[in-house]
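Side project, low priority. Logging it here so it doesn't get lost.
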Amino acid sequence: MKIESFSALLICYLRSDYVFNMVNVISEFGISRIYVYFDGTKNQEDQNNQNVLISKIEKHCEKLNIMLIIRRSHINLGISKSVINAADWFFSHEEYGVLLEDDLIISNEFLNFTFSARNLLELHSEILLVSGNQFFTGEYALCWTHYPLIWGWATTRQK
C-alpha cells in the first residue's frame, strides 16, 4: 500500500541509531516519500559523520524504493531554529505530514493515528497539530491539551 498524500519529515543532525528504524516503519506503513533535513554541523568531524549518515540513508531508502528528498543547512542553526526551518521547507512541498526528530522510536500505530487525525485537523480549526508519545507503558489513551508535544507530530501546511 502506498500512501501518496502522506509524507514524513525526519529532522536530523548526527544520531543514526533510530533513523533506520523510523525509515523501516515508515516504509512498512506505505509512505513512499521521506524528507530529511539536516542541521548544519559545528565542526569537520561532525560534517564527515553526517556525510556518512546521509550516504547510508540514501542507500537504505533506495533499497526500500522510497523517494528521498534531502536538505542540509550550511550553518548550525540549533534545535529550535532548525525545526522551524525544516518545517517551513517541508510544508513548502507538502499539504500534510508527520514530523519526526531523529531520536524517536515510532510504530505503525503512531503513523496510523497521525494519518487518521488529518480529518480532525481539517474539521476543527482550533486543533493545530496532533502528536503522540508513550511516557508510560500500558493502554493507549487520547487526550486534548494546550501544550504541544513536538517530538513526533503531524499537521497541515495551513496550520
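Brief comment: The chain has five helices and six strands.
Revisit when time allows.
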